[in-house]
Each structure stands twice: as structure tokens, then as C-alpha cells.
Amino acid sequence: MPEIIIMPQLGETVAEGKILNWFKAVGDDVKIGDRLFEVETDKVTVEVEAIVAGKLTEIRTGNGATAKIGATVAVLGGEHVLATSASMPVAVQNTQPQSTPVPAPSVPSKHGVLLPFEEVRTPLGRFGKAAAGDIRLTPLARRMIAQRGLDVAALAQQALAKGLRKVEEKDVTAFAELPASPAPAQKLALSISAADQVITLNAIRSRTGEKLAENWRTIPHVFQAIDVDFTEVEVVRARHKERFKTETGYALTYLPFIARACCIALQAFPHINARFDGKSLIVSNSINLGIAVDLNHNGLVVPVVHGVQDFTLQGLAKAMGRQIEKAKNNKLTPADFSGGTYSITNNGAFGTSFTSPIINAPQVAILSSDAIRKKPAVVGDAVVPRLMGTVGQSFDHRAFDGAYAAAFLSKLKNTIETKKWAGELGENT
Amino acid sequence: MAELSYRDAVIRGISQEMRRDNNVVFLGEDIGKAGGVFKATVGLYEEFGPLRVRDTPISEQAILGAAMGAAMTGLRPIAEIMFSDFVAVCFDYIANEMPKISYMTNGQVKCPLVIRTGNGAGVRFGAQHSQSIENWTMMIPGLKVVAPSSPIDVIGLMAAAIRDNNPVIFHEHKALYATKGEVPDGEIVDTLGTAKILRPGKDCTILALAMMVHRAMDAAEILARDHGIDAEVIDVRSLVPLDTQTMLASVAKTGRLFTVEENPRLLGWGAEIASIVADEGFWDLDGPIVRITTPHIPLPAADHLEDLALPNVPRIVEKIRRVMNG
Amino acid sequence: MVKSMAIENDDIGNEKRLELWRKQVEIRDCEKRAYDLFLQNLIKGTSHLSLGQEAIAAAFGVAMQKGDKSFCTYRGHAHTLARGVPMEGMLGELMLRDIGLMRGKGGSMHLTSVEHGVMGSYAIIGAHLPIACGSAWRAQYLGEKDVTVCFFGDGTTNIGAFHEALNFAVIWKLPVVFVCENNLYMEYTLNSDVTAVASPAGDRASAYGLEKIVIDGNDADVVYRTANTAIEKARNGGGPSLVECLTYRHSGHSRADPGKYRPPGELEKWMERDPIKIYKQRMKDFGFTEAQIEAVEAESKRKVERATELCKASPSAPEELLTADVYADGGWAWRN
Asked: Which of A144, B35, B248, B255 could lock onto A172 through a cystine, CB 3.0 to 4.6 A?
């Protein structure tokens, strides 16, 4: 029966040994106790004796060669069936069935496998201080305030005025529903004839209408636009739109490309991804994009995709698709509207050249993209048909200047036109 | 569909599984010929005979030890410990032997068995026969722990426990044996580790176990009717594995958490859940987590004192109302 | 009053004798190696050696058939080896390496090899006696023909679980053999100082309607004959037996104990009755040559060396094993 000779354990921390010299050759008989070879480690040089007997039929680790502790260095008495250069001697009869090394959870978890030192998944991230002066805020209240960008001081003030000692969820919810600076809509006295049709504004329109008027009145809007060549985008989009639709159910329009380019450009021009409280610009590390969705001419809602600064085009397109679908199915919740730092409105469906949109306070800018169609463009010195679109931005001139905003648009254009989009859709570029 | 008592549900659950699998056997004191001191095993001896339903001497260590030895070598035993207080007598098997053997032997040995035991107060048995000890068993790694509150859950969770390949301790509530509930016909098999939302609500979450579930439900009625508080009541059902997702989702919805626990105050089952929610669900909390428990005392025998000690409906309502409105 | 087993003809046979000799020698050599490895700090924690008690484990090991189940105590190295478990599995577990029977998860006190019928070694005194009853109950219920043998020490006879198990086994007539290894000392105390009767197991037998059986635990032939009788009785539906084997341990209770509580001369007296010494002579008496006897000893040493090599070269178990096998599905998830 074949026996293996292994590199023996030569010391506590020794991992391998170098055979300096074999005292036996292939074909020699080996008795128990015979000197087999001399081995050198980083600590000592020792002679290894045989503890098994047989005819030496194979030397695997010759003079000058190194083997790991436990590795087979030679074979006695015939072919050793299990050829291995692994560190574990495989002639061992392990009598117990090896259990699976990766434990599976006993109860299905949507979070996957339970980690040994993370049995309770502590949430990271802070949502502001627990107290504002003498007023305490519940954790939920603090989270809501942070996520909706509300004024802590004002809430604390309100609590004091009411003689309360704390701010809770219901206080925050009530506060969030108040108009920003109450300017009730003027109802003009108009004469109405029989030929006229009175259409009362629906709920969405009345609510948003007041806010729009307020924003237009208080924010110094400046509008800038830039022409963007979408030809290369279309090449990639055409390649992927079928697959994307099949895989996700959503359409891969130009909008996600524009949104992704915005994320990249906003990271270069962070003051645009910010909120303005009248005195300070609150720049956000998180890009929370509001995507304007038209509800069949019955109003506009702007649901937010949160924390998308590092999303790939694919991921962002899916996230946007989800929100748009929810909006159309009337499934948006308050959380979907909170925390936006920048907005995008898309009016391209009707062929318009550009739109000068109204900013969503407390944000400081809003992007609009319009129709993208084949138009004559200049490439080099030639006039060629290219897929062109005008991308415009309204910005709050209190927050930054025209040069900053224009540079942002320039970066945006450059990104859309020259980025290797295929790489973000799963292709190896 | 039929109305079945909790005790008849025990019989139905055990017999459902014993008919299905010949390896399921049952041992305990007075469980066979006498049908159990709580009459919760009547008829099993007659149906399955003296080899499968065995009356034992008063030897809790032997009962659990034998159940373990049989489970290790191929059977699926059910062992009864008459009053849950008595687990203290044979606790070596519950704490040291059964739940550790799979781990220590690197998975060579499995221990598929069910210990069923009469838990809880309300029947005037005094301090050593009335304890709720489910929390003692919750803290041992390797053991699964269930405590059903209704007949349908008794059957479903009993079946799940018997089919589970681990040691499971099944806490039946003595004061619930006579209560009744609707039970569908046919085989009933539930899933361990799942809680049930018995009453959806939006203002606060109430977690309860076994007999306290019924009191929590009654309290929720009163809170809604008289105090405008819409409580979501969840029957925890299984302490290990623990359905933390259902509980966390509920608190994310309501922002407030209450537990109603029969065990004495310190380290009751609600303490662990409160800790998990205070950690993982911190940013969903709109107020302190409150545990409503029996005080940290042995239980008296006198009926009015026992009723005073356990969380009762008026006390539950009052505590929740006061905390929610404060 | 000691029940004597009269030796008339050679009822054992040389094949079995060779096996008895081999098992005792290998147990002795492997235990001595365990002693050395502990001194070299390659065996950590604690270890309870059975040097001097080899005959009992070896004899029962030869008498038991494949499929029979054995339960032993934390002093279970000998009983584990006697069931045919390879030395490297046992030494490896003592050294807490991946090559160990349980990959280091259980350690010296919990040696288990289901494949060989070693259904665990138990550290809580007396716990495994009722468990052994359960294994026997299962055999009886399923009509399986295996016998369960349960080994324990003299100190166990004073704990509650011993009494519950004996009563249980008798009333249900279970196919289990209880083997008490009386080595005189319960941890550091002389057992006779704390036991109401002279024979800790033998004098309790009648309380459970069992025959008093007290034998010389250092003579492998004597133990083997008694083992056979008791095991066959159980296998044929005759119910349990309680066998007390008189023996002595050469070392302290555990590796940490040098055994200084023993009176002077006691160890020397027992060394005269060393099982290996007795059996070597027995082998000669039954016609084995020096060469044959020494061949077994040499092969044993070779096996021990080989096992030591393999164990020293074995790594520790991977870290994923920390949370493996808490539950039957291999996992440990107590929550979702």
C-alpha cells in the first residue's frame, strides 16, 4: 500500500521547508528510522527520519526545492493515487462529514446571511441633534426634518410657543404642510358669462400653484441654455433599449442619460446641488434628483430619487423608472417628495426648443430638456445632420453667478457628448 | 371549519404528526392512560398504543435525556414537562446538552425533538406552578422557542416544531387550555419564526405573547373606542427564531412600541426586542419603548393578587393611553 | 463479594486476543503521546487521560459490533479509539485542529464520531446515562438490534441522573449496558469517603432489581467475557446490566492535576496490576511469540508518529466554522 512522506511540522510558526539534500534515491528501500533528507527552515536545519517503510518510488520535492508544511514530498511503495501539491495531506481519513463552511440562515432573511458580529444592523447616519435649545426632538422627528430640509429652529420655536417640551412626528408633518411664507392665492373678481366654462383647479394644481407663484415671486431666476449633440448617446441607447425594456419593464429614454450627466456635472459644481435658506447655501453631498412627471395634463409631480450620485446609468434609469411608474399609478408617499436637491423637467415630447422652468425652492436650480431631433450641425468644417437638443437651466442668482452656472452647463454638455456610456450599461469598453 | 379548544388543538396537532410519521413518539408523566393532568393528551394512548405513547416515572432528567438519546439516533420524540417551572429540574438537557450537541460535534449529531410544557399563570397554582419561563429558554443558543396563543396556532406550530430538525420548546399556556377558536379542517402546518399581525393599526405597535395576546387585543379595542388610539397588535408567537422584520416594519409605520409580557420584569422576552428596535429601528421611534410586565416578584396563590400581578386589560389601556398622550 | 469468572477453556480465541492486545497498546501509546503534546502546549485547555484504564475500553470495544452505540465521559479518549476511530482524528481534536473529529468545535471532552458509533463524550457528570437510555429506547422501538453501552466513573453513581437512568432502563427493559469504571477517585476525593456503600455501582444494582457485577477492570479477558454476556443479554431483549470494573488511573484527574492526594505506595501497587503488563503475559501464556507481541507495539508506535505528523501539519479550522451548525440546517440565524 503506498505511503506518503510529508514535510513535517518543523516549528510553531514555520510554514515551509527547503530540502537541501536527499539521503535516499528513487528505488531505495526505506526502513523506519532511516534518514530521509535534510531540510532547512528560516530557523534551523534538521534531518528528517522515516516513520513509514517501503520502497521509495517517487520524489516530488527534490534537492533545493521548497515544500509547504504538510505537503507530500515523496511516495513509498507504488503510485499514490491522490496526487496533490496542496498543503493538506489527503491520505487522512476524516471520519466526520464536513459541514458546509458558509452557514445558511435558518429563517429566510431579506438581508441575506446573518453576520456574526452584526446580529443587529445598527443604522448609520445621523439626523441632527436630539435637542434644539430646551426642546427635545424624537428620533423620527429629527429624521423627517433632515430628509425634508425643514427648519429646526422654526419647529422648536413653534413648540415653545405652544408650551410644549418636545417636537414629535405629528408636529413635523403639520409644519411641512404649511405654506412656506403664507401668501394666500388671490381670487380676482371676474365676470363670468354663459359662454365661459369654469374649471376649478384640482388638488394637485392648487397645492403646487401657490408654491409656484411664491417661488417665482421670491427667487431671482436666470435662464441659460446650451445646445447638446445626442448622436453618440443615441448609438448606445439604440443598442440597449430593447434589453433594458425586457429586463426592467421601463423605457430607456434620453432622460436617464441627461440625469446621469447631471450627477457627474453636479459633483464638479457642488453649489448647484444645494438648498438656500435665504442666508446660507446648504450644499449636499447626496444628490437627490427630483424628476418632474406629468400626470396626463392633470398636474405635475416631482418625485425624488435619493442618493444617486454614484449610481450608474443603468441603476439611475431603473430608479427613475420606478418613481415615474409610482407617480403615474398614484402610489407616491411623502418620503418620495422629500429631500430633493436638484430637479429635472423634460418637455421634449412636444417638439419645443427650450423651456424656462420655475425653481423648486429651497433648491437653487432646475434643468429642462426639450426636443431632441435631427438638425444641421457643424462638425469640423462640414455641416452635417446630427441629433441635437437644447438643455436649459433656471438658477437662483443669489446662490451663484452666471459664469458658474454656464460652466456647469458646459460640463454637462461635454459629459453627454463624450462619456463612454456603453460602460455604464454593462458593456466592456 | 370547526370550533376547537386549545387543549383539543394540542391533541389534534400531535396526532396529525404521529399519524404522518411513525418515528414521532411521545413520553411524559401521566400523558398516556390518564390523558395528561391538563387533559391535553386524551386519546393519544388509545390511538397510538403503549409503545408510542409512554408514561414515565417522575424523572424529568430521564424524560429529557431519553428524548435526546432517541432523537440523536433516529426518532422524533415529543417529551412533556408537566409544568414549565419544572424545567429547572432538568435544565442541564435544555441548556447544556440538547442545544449544543450539533455545534460541538460539527454537525454529526442532530437533535429533532419537541419539549412541550404547561406555562403561565392564572389558574391559582402558586409560585412554583405558575411561572412564564419562555424567556429562560429564549436565551440559550441552539434552542427554538414557541408560545401559541390560539388553537389554530397550537396545531400549526406543533406540526412545524415536530417537523423541525432542532430541539424546540413548545410553551402551552395553562390558562388558555379551555379557550376556543376556529380551526379549518385538514392538515395544518405553520412556520416557526413568523409573527402574526392580528389587528392592523397606525398609531402604535403592541407586541404580545400567549395569554397576553388576548388582553392586548381587548385593550386595543378600548383604546380605539374610548381614546382614539389605533393600535397594531402583533402576536409574536415565536421567540426563536424571532420575526424581527415584521416588528421593525410595524414600528416604522407607527413610530411607537409597547410590549405586553407575562414574565416578571427583568430580562423578559420584550427586553430583547426593545433593544433590537432601539438599535435598528431608532430613527423610526417617535417616543420611548414601553414594556408592560408582571412586577419582579414570585407569584402569589391568592386569586385577586394573581390577577393584580399580571398585566390586565385596564392596566394595559391606562399605560398606553398615558404614554401616548404624554 | 466479587463475582468471579472461572476460566475453563480458551473461550476467547487468539484472533480476539490479538485485537484486545492491539487496542490496549494503541490506547496506551496514543494517551502517552497526548500527555507529551500537552506538555509541549500543542494540546490546549484540558485533557482527561485514561492511562491505566485501557482494558475496559479495549475489551468493550472488541465485544461491541459495528452499529452498537457507545456513550462515554469527558475521559473518553480510550473509548473513542476503541471503536476504531483513527488516531489523528482523536489527537487532532485534542489539538483543536481542522483534522480533528469535530474540526476543533468540541474539544477533548466531547469526542464524537457517529460513523463509528461514538455518540458523544459528555462533560456534565451523569448527563449521558439517560441519553443512553434514549438510544436504547429507539433501538427497542424500531426493532433494531444494536446495543447501547454507557461508560462512566465511580463519582457518577452519586448523581441524580444515574438513579433516574437505572430505574428507567429497568422498567422499560432497555438494551443498554451501564459500565462503571471505579478508579477509586472522584476528581480529587476518595470516592469511598463520599459514597454510602462500598461498591459504588455494584451495591446500587439491587436497588434497581439488577445483579451485582464487580470485576477486575485491569484484565482485558475478564472484562471481555463480562462485556459479551451483558451485551448479548441486552441484544436478545434481556434488558440492562450494570457492570462495575475495578481499575486505577496512573495520572491525575486531568492534565492539570499531578495527583498528589494519593497515599504513598498506592500508585506503585497498582502499577503491578497494569493492564498492559497483565496482557503481555497473557499473550505469552497463550502462545504468541515475542516477535508477534512486539510487532503490535511497533506498529502502534508507527501509527502514533504518523498521526502526530498529520496533526501537527493540520491547520486550525476556518473562521466560518464559528457560526456553523448551531442549528440542524448548518446555520445560526435566530432572527430574520
From this structure: A144
